[in-house]
Amino acid sequence: MSKHTPTVEAMVKLNNQLREELMGENKTYYEDLLTYIRTAGLFYDDHEVESLLMQILQDILSAQHDGQSAEAFFGKSPQKAADALIHNLGKASWKEIMKLTGIIFGISSFFELLNALTLPGKGINFLVLMLNGLLSFIVVGIVFHVLHRSIYAKIVKSKVLSFLVLWLACMLIIGLFVLIHVLTPPLLTLYLASPVGILMITILLVGLTIAALRRNKEDRKIWWSFLPPVYIMGLIGILSRLPLTEDWLASRNGRITAVVCIGFGLILNWVITYVNIRAEKE
């Protein structure tokens, strides 16, 4: 890629800006098409995908300027046209595939590590880390597939039934993660001394903070919403390893306080997420 070739992030940002110029049905038409193409698979070349979407957007904007609708320009069967375009997209390089795989496993491992470090006697089960990462990768693939298939074909037409199916799917996924924790033997478990545990928690929290600060303005809003519960869990993990507070946190009152604090962190997560969503709509 040459120095003058726009990055994927730059094209996504420009796409978000130009998309606001679309009117009514044209915007709905294009955004359905955008979601359909982006969720076609995990292993297509991101640069080719975003270049294609940008070209389509610019063509539809030109047609709109000439008084032509997106449907009249692109056709009444956008799914067939999109399938033909997707078929010609190049596959991602092994480097990009490994990067995506690493991101999914990294996110899964981060929360599992933090959860393990919050409880001093639990230890880090590396077999659980690997199984959680594998399950996370499968879940992401299924979510992409379902989103892709549901754009132009309603899988479940009833809103109530759709909500019920979504709820059951979420419960199933949570149940699978719980089963991994319950059934996985402690074959590859590492138990850390208190000073090492405190050091690891500190490294994780500092690393997360730096990563959040390095995000662009839009992505940073998403990261900020996750920071309160993560910081609280990290603080509990540190306090549970300090001589002055470990006995109190191990007591009934200490455990209740820890649960309440984590619950408060989750509420902050929901509030910040809600505020960000409202701000985007306005």
From TrEMBL:
Classification via Gene3D superfamilies: c-terminal domain of poly(a) binding protein
SUPFAM superfamilies recorded: BH3980-like
Highest taxon in the source lineage: Bacteria
Record keywords, A-Z: Membrane, Transmembrane, Transmembrane helix
Transmembrane domains' residue ranges: 100-118, 124-148, 160-182, 188-210, 222-244, 256-277
Name of the protein in question: DUF1129 domain-containing protein
Originating species: Sporolactobacillus terrae
